[in-house]
Amino acid sequence: MLPRHLKSFISLLFPLLFLSGPASALYFRLDGDRLWLQAEQTPLVDILDQFARLGVEVRLDPRIQSTVTGAVRGENVDEALEALLESYDYLLTWKMLRGPLGRIPKLQEMQVFLPGGKTAALPIPKKSAKFDFTRGVLGTAPEFVKDELLIGVRPGASYDRFKRLLDGIGGMIVESDSATGIYLIRFPAGTNVEALLRQLADNPLVAHAELNLVTRLPAAAPSAATRPPALPAVRPPADGSIPVAVLDSGLDPRAGLSALVSAGWDAVDPDRALSDPAGHGTQMAFLASGLLAAAGSDPAGQILPLVSVRAFDEDGKTSNFAILQALAYAAQAGAKVVNMSWGSETDSDFMRTAMQVAADKGLLLVAAAGNAPTGMPVYPAAYPVVIAVGGVDASGQPWTNSNHGDFLDLSASAFASFPIGHNGPAGDYAGTSISSAVVANALAQYMNRNPGATAAAARAALTQALSPAPAGGYGGGILDAAALRRFLNP
Q: What φ, ψ does residue 225 adopt, rounded to 5°?
């Protein structure tokens, strides 16, 4: 904790006066330990909300109702707050972002309260944690998060030079992904990041820059209405079991799977307890853990622990950077298999890099091929290090809506019945999401039975065990009940 220092007024700052009146224009930029602020009769809580939007945990004494007029231009945060909060006490907590630019200070928590009243500071109300997306100025670009870019720097780039670059374009470092060295940069609302992307293409500090692309959950695909199964009884996994990771819409606490969760995290809103507004992630958790089997499949037997990561917001959207962080979390949590029952037709160099980095760490990556028979690659399934899974019915024939193509590695049952619905009622569902989770469970079972096996050995054994696939680009075989038995009991 960094306590409020008793300093004299800072002459470098423009006067910041507490006034009353309606809120007006606000400019805010926070980069590392430097603050830019232009406010005119702006409620203090609105300024603090700008900190919260950058991932700072903000607590405020609700008795403080001040408004602010004035300006700060690139000053040290602590010095700026000394003037801004002259009548109040505050505490700051910092962390360090790690990446190719070295250790970068990042404000983690801020508490503002009346003198001696620290315990009265309460979390400020948060806006809904959703990805604010757009299709760009012309409306023709793939969906991406507004006012954000992902940037990778060239080897040897210094933080001081990168700060000068950000000062010139108004960017703020929000987060870094230490596994890939990618920085999430945010800009003031309304910034034309597509134009900035073109501007950065020739910058000597920038190795690569991308829009922070958006991916959506597959649409709910209920099949014939039947009576849904009851919630299965949950047996705790055996001690020492290797978990399987599910990167999806989260986990519904009503599903009774908490005993299986060895690690869980909300990548959209890290301060929130794990939940699942859509239900899709919970469905995939039933399959990946082995609690439920898909139609035509035999249960694999052992119940597996789960690493559950909520990477999609309440509207079923995620960003590339959220996926990068979710992958890193899964690896740190000890998962050996990662299920990704979703995808997009938009390729991304950064996503390709993230998948390669995860595979290099020994993770087996499994992804759905898509629920539209276009024959077009879907990502991340189409990346070479990812196992792409298409869908078949219980008889081994292609599911009508399954994607197909040269990028598929195999197919598996696309039908299952769930006690939890996906944006709808419980019951029967269809989709390559199911197929992907079936394969992820099989691979996780194999890794638990062969804890010394490498990812390459597990993938080769799976390929060798498959039953013949139907013609038409459904991969090198089908993981049906017989293939599963061959795979797990060679």
A: -70, 125
Which string of b and e fits 68-100 if b means at least 16 CB within 10 Å?
Answer: bbbebeebbbbbbbbbbbeebbbbbeeeebebb
Distance CA 206, CA 167 (A): 15
Residue 211 tokens, joined: 């829009």
CA distances from 476 to 6, 222, 238, 489, 490 (A): 70, 28, 33, 20, 19
Domain with CATH 3.30.70.80 in the chain: 133-213
Cβ atoms of 431 and 414 within 8 Å: the answer is yes
Q: Residue 302: what pLDDT?
A: 87
Q: Which one, of 268, 264, 269, 397, lies nearest residue 330 by Cα? A: 264
Q: How far apart are CA 474 and CA 479, in angstroms?
A: 11
Whether the CB-CB separation of 75 and 13 falls below 8 Å is answered with yes
Match domain 133-213 to its CATH number in 3.30.70.80, 3.30.300.30, 3.40.50.150, 3.90.226.10. Answer: 3.30.70.80
What CA–CA distance (Å, rounded) separates 166 from 159? Answer: 10
434-445 confidence digits (pLDDT tens): 999 999 999 999
3-state SS class at 356: helix
Tokens of 184: 């999430």
* Other C-beta atoms lying within 10 Å of the C-beta of residue 485: 13
CATH of domain 244-488: 3.40.50.200
pLDDT in tens, 19-73: 333 434 789 999 999 999 999 989 999 999 999 989 899 999 999 998 888 889 9
Q: What is the pLDDT of residue 225?
A: 62
Q: What is the value of pTM for the model shown?
A: 0.91
Sign for the pseudo-dihedral over CA of 331, 130, 170, 56: negative
For residue 438, what are its two tokens?
């079936």
Q: What is the identity of the amino acid at 181?
A: G
Instruction: Give the residue carrying structure tokens 């804890």.
Output: 451
Question: Distance of CA 406 to CAs 208, 379, 479, Å?
Answer: 28, 13, 18
Three-state SS for 473? coil
CA distance linking residue 418 with residue 135, whole number of Å = 35
Structure tokens at 340: 């990704």
E strands present in 362-444: 364-368, 386-392, 410-413, 415-418, 427-430
